[in-house]
Amino acid sequence: MAARMVSTVLARWALGCAVVTNVIRAMREHPSAVLLLGQVVAILAYPFLDGSTAGRAVLGVLQLLLLLAAVAAVRMTPAFSWAAIIFGGPATIFAVWESVAPNEGWVVLTSAFFHVPFYLFVSYAMIRYLFHDDVVTRDELFATGAAFTVVAWAFAYLYAAIQVIWPGSFGDHRQWFDLLYLSFTTLTSVGLSDIVPVLPHARSVVMIEQIAGVFYVAMVVARLVGLAAARARRV
Fold this sequence. Notes:
By secondary structure, the chain is mainly alpha-helical. The chain has one domain (28-234). Helix content is 83%, strand content 0%. The chain has helices at 2-29, 31-49, 53-74, 78-100, 105-131, 138-165, 176-187, 200-234. The radius of gyration is 21 Å and the shape is globular.
């Protein structure tokens, strides 16, 4: 009886180790999918953590770590290493600081100063990953969505900075999650947001994001269609 119990426990342990190994292997093979999943989880989790300073801080830091891990896996270059040091490190610190003092103007502004270029650089690195060869892998398909969400995050931080520099840019003072909602509705051009830019500077940036969203979709679709046509000709 004891031997049977031991063998059962060992079998379950081996099965659990095999499952964990397969999950880790899948994460290594599809870093863009992990990043996209992390972004979606952050969107769904933020409303539950909005009243928790610790929750917002942990969510912000984990998101930046996901960005670093994903881009390091798909495109580690000297330029990215410097960007991670110059922008990624301070952005992580201010992600925590901003969760503690979300209404402190200079903290929000400084946080945006580091977050915006870091997110834009990450999106650029992922777009390069999409275009680096003539083969479309499964992870590159996930990268199309991941890069899109990263751009939306960058503009959300940019809107937060605009709101500090020009108060009333979006009517009432908006929380960061409200600005992220505005960013996604603008980037996707669905026009469903009840938050609108009021002052000229805010409207200018919103128009730039609309152009970026349309251009991104056109660029990625043209790339995928072109590769599909080239593959059909080879066959």
